[in-house]
Amino acid sequence: MNFDFSDEQKQLRDSARRFLEKQSSVAVVRRVLEGDEGYDRELWQGLAEMGFTGAAIPEEFGGAGLGYLELCVIAEELGRAVAPVPFSSTVYLAAEFLLAAGNDAQKKNYLPKIAAGEVIGTFAYAETAGEVTAERIKATVSGGKLSGTKIPVADGAIADFAVVAAQGGSGLGLYLVDLTGPGVTRTVVDTIDPSRKHARIVFDGAPVEQLGAGNAEAVIEAVYDRAAVLTAFEQVGGSDRALEMARDYALERIAFGRQIGSFQAIKHILADMYVSATLARSNCYWGAYALSTGSAELPEAAASCRVSATRAFQHCSTNNIQVHGGMGFTWQFDCHLYYKRSNLLALNLGSLSVWENRLIARMRARNSARDAA
Amino acid sequence: MNFDDTPEEAAFRQEARAWIAANAPKHLKEELELSGFGGLYLKSEDPMQAGKAWQKKKAEAGWACLHWPKEYGGRGATPIERVIWGQEEGVYAKLSGLFTIGHGMCGPTVMAWGSEEAKRERLPTLASGEEIWCQLFSEPAAGSDLAGLRTRAEQATDGSGDWIINGQKIWTSGAQHSQWGLLLTRTDPNVPKHKGLTMFFLDMRSPGVEVRPIRQMNDQRTFNEVFFENVRIPDSQRLGPVGAGWNVSLTTLMNERLSIGSGMPTGFPDLLDFAIATGDVDNPAVRAKLADWSVKASGLKFTAFRALSALSKGETPGPENSIGKLVAGAMMQDIAKYAMDLQGEAGILTNAADAEARGKFQAMALRSPATRIEGGSDEILRNIIAERVLNLPADVRVDKDVPFNAIPTSGRK
Amino acid sequence: MNFDDTPEEAKFRAEVREWISANAPHDLDEDLKKSGLAGLRLPGRDIMAESKAWQKKKADAGWAVPHWPKEYGGRGATPIERVIWQQEEGLYNQLAQPFAIGQGMCGPTVMAYASEDLKRKYLPKLASGEEIWCQLFSEPAGGSDVAALRTRAEKADGSDEWVINGQKIWTSGAQYSDYGILLTRTDPNVPKHAGLTMFIVDMKAPGVEVRPIHQMNGGRGFNEVFFENVRIHDSHRLGAVNDGWNVALTTLMNERMSIGSRLATGFPEIFGFVADFQLPDGPAIDNAAVRAKLADWAVKSSGLRYTAFRAISSLSKGERPGPENSIGKLVAGVMTQDIAKYAMELQAEAGVLTSQEDAPAAALFQNMVLNSPGMRIAGGTDEILRNIIAERVLGLPGDVRVDKNVPFNQAPGR
Question: Residues of the signal sequence (chain A) (predicted)?
Answer without folding.
Answer: none
